[in-house]
Structure formats: structure tokens, C-alpha cells
Amino acid sequence: MASSMLCSSMSCRFNLGEVAPLLSLPAGFVTVFLWGGGNEELGWRGFALPRLQARYNAFTSSLIIGVIWTLWHAPPGIIELGFVGWAVDLPFYMITVTGISIVATWLYNETGGSVLLAMVFHASVNVSQSLYPIEDMFTRTGEYARASAWILLVIGLLVIPRTGFLNRKKSAEYRLPDLATTAVTKE
Description:
The chain is mostly helical. 65% of the residues lie in helices and 0% in strands.
């Protein structure tokens, strides 16, 4: 919603014909959740994040995942836009993906390590893109609006004093379990 408002302030054209039919959203969500971006969270939040947070704070861990995640999506971006086109869009795309990473990490940590919620969030972000009533949403102006919206959301998240997202030294409560002490031995 925020990116649609930002885009419209930059002379984007509204076109309600661009909005996916609402009846298709549940099926789209399930598809993305199971086979699209949602299942990426098993790797990003389920595998990589606990290992990174054993070493770095939540914010730094989110930045590392954001950069790797951006590169993960490089091949489809290059195929769609060509190498030069993708390289021009790369900064905006990296800001957007890193913003999503920061919010997903915050959700993961604030829910005691729920990968399921991170998956729901990721799938929701991907499916919600079909709701942008802006013709130019997937142009450079639209990418700028989307990146700006994620920057504003992350700034809002970081200034909420209660979360301590930037101040959290290491997220020990989300570290990997010590397998030596949790393994059940058979006699």
C-alpha cells in the first residue's frame, strides 16, 4: 500500500485492471507458500539465520541474508531484463529484498523462531504484489517506490525502542541446539 502511494506521488498511473482478481489470491498464496518464495524461508530463516545469529546480531544477520538472497535471484532477473538492465535495477532490488529480510528476521525473533510465520510473511509479500493498482509498478519508478516503502518500514521497525533490534548483541535464544546435550542415547 505504501509503495502504491509513493509510486502515485511520482506520476505513476493507476489502473485497476492491473489488480489480480481477488478470488485468485488464496490459490496464489498457497502456490507461493508451498512452491514459491515461502519455501525459501526454510533456508533463510530456518537454516541460515540461526547460524548467523550465533555469530552476529539480528540486524547484521539480516543484511547478510539480504545480499545473498538478492544474488540468489540474479539469474531470473538477468534472463528477464538482460545483464545491463538487471544491474541498473540491482540497487533498488537489493534494498527491497534486504528490507524484507530485516522484517522477516524481526518476525522470526519476536515469535520465538517461527519459520512458519516467516513463510507466511514471504508468501504474503509476493502475492500482495498482484494487488498494486499501478501500471508502472514494475518499472524503475515502481522499483524506487517499493524500495522506498521498505526503507520506511525498516526505519519504523528500528526506531521502536522495545524491540532492541539494533542493540541485540547475539541472539543466543535462537542459536542451534547443542546436539551433544540434547541427543537421546539408546541403551
